[in-house]
Amino acid sequence: MVPTPIGNILDITYRSINILKKVDFIISENKKYTSILLKKFFIIKKMFSYHLVNEKLKTKKYIKMLKDGKNLALVSNAGTPLINDPGYLLVKQAYSNNIRVVPLPGACAAISALISSGLKTNRFCYEGFLPKKKKKLKKKIYSLNNEKRTTILYESPKRLINTIKLIKKIMGPKKKISISKELTKKWEKIKTGTTQKFLKKIKKNNYWKKGEILIIINGIKNKKKKISSKILQTLSILKKEMSLSKAIKITAKICRFNKNILYNKIIKKKNDKVS
């Protein structure tokens, strides 16, 4: 699996070029796009098509070729194969037939958008393209409303304004998002801010109405659980009859509260009084 540039043609790796030169055949999502890349790096190789329409039919053919000892390179239009592109069936069938699968590192728009967003990158989820129909889109945004991880989305520039309006309506005007447009190209643009600020910026700006768009949404913060008066009252009664640790354990069970949070809070309070 060979990643190809998402915009800037120089983003291809030396290893990718070397592999494309060495393999017997190249399987391409779009032979027209791939031929431009091959021409740039003086690679002459026979290509076969592999896209969403013929994926099921072609997989059998390519598995047979691999079993016959041929080496094949899989490339998509741009970026890393299988990320919103065909290839999953081929990889799955390769493993079923004990065929070695070699993933090459390289360009990926989703990861590039994430690391340049200014939002948290230690935990994230990838949702791909948003649904086109309004009802499904609304349902999807609602499902992401309580997501604690940073979310990566692809969106069409034609639907960008309506999508941000929906994010604002469901997640709030202060929800932090980042929008990346035409990554790695000379007209690349990356903006981070609230949904409210974005709508003001892009509503009358035709610049955002074309090109490849990625939306990164900030995850929600973990809310600290408050210890209610009911919990404290229950604990106060129980600790008169037993040890503090046992009282905390039983209180946590009765009130369905995390015993560790309760224990740490009570012990901290106790230590503060002593000091």
TrEMBL record:
Pfam families, A to Z: TP_methylase
Catalytic activity: cytidine(1402) in 16S rRNA + S-adenosyl-L-methionine = 2'-O-methylcytidine(1402) in 16S rRNA + S-adenosyl-L-homocysteine + H(+)
InterPro entries: 4pyrrol_Mease (IPR000878), 4pyrrol_Methylase_sf (IPR035996), 4pyrrole_Mease_sub1 (IPR014777), 4pyrrole_Mease_sub2 (IPR014776), rRNA_ssu_MeTfrase_I (IPR008189), SAM_MeTrfase_RsmI_CS (IPR018063)
UniProt entry tagged with the keyword Nuclease: no
Major place of residence: cytoplasm
Span of the signal peptide: none
Subcellular location: Cytoplasm
Domain Tetrapyrrole methylase: 2-196
Keyword annotations from UniProtKB, A to Z: Cytoplasm, Methyltransferase, rRNA processing, S-adenosyl-L-methionine, Transferase
Source organism, top-level taxon: Bacteria
Enzyme Commission (EC) number: 2.1.1.198
Gene Ontology MF terms: rRNA (cytosine-2'-O-)-methyltransferase activity
Cellular component GO terms, alphabetical: cytoplasm
Record function comment: Catalyzes the 2'-O-methylation of the ribose of cytidine 1402 (C1402) in 16S rRNA.
UniProt family annotation: Belongs to the methyltransferase superfamily. RsmI family.
NCBIfam families with a match to the protein in the record: 16S rRNA (cytidine(1402)-2'-O)-methyltransferase
Protein name (Swiss-Prot/TrEMBL): Ribosomal RNA small subunit methyltransferase I
Lineage: Bacteria, Pseudomonadati, Pseudomonadota, Gammaproteobacteria, Enterobacterales
Gene for this chain: yraL
